[in-house]
Target: NADAR family protein
Amino acid sequence: MSFYSIAPFIQEYYPQYYSIETYPAAQCITIHKVAEEWGLFCNFAHTPIVLYGVTFKSAEQLFQLMKFKDKEAVRAVFQARNPKMTAKKWERTHRRPDWGCMIVDAMKFCIQQKYEQHEAFQVMLDKSEGKYIVEDQTSFPKKAPDTWGTKLCEDHYTGPNLLGRLLMELREYKRLDYHLPANALDFIQLLKK
Model:
């Protein structure tokens, strides 16, 4: 199992999300690239999130920053053109030791902030009513999708689809419940110094 795989964390700390789901392709809205029709659902979409006077350029940047408490790592990820790839470089040595038990709550927090701060995202989520939302990783080189997505197999999308499931949960309840450690956002203070 890869160091970067989150499946063991989901299995241990979030068993309610540890499953493989199947969705009929004809009833799905797919998330693949920001420039596509439903691209606003991508965490990389340009939807700035403001927290405590600091602006994050996307939900993805905020999520990646939540992995760290070290000033050097936080600054590197914040300034990076691609926060996901930069975070990967720092994770082996600087990732918070409790990241596994907060990963889904961190994603819920980021998506909730995006929802509260962007009306266009709210409108698009409402517009998707009646359809399944899936992250389409069919073009990814790996044989199986990662925990966030699905792959198209004949006329069905199959995979854990954690991102799509969280978006559908948000669409249904208008709110994602999350429980973060008290120091989850301490990295923001490092950006203000």
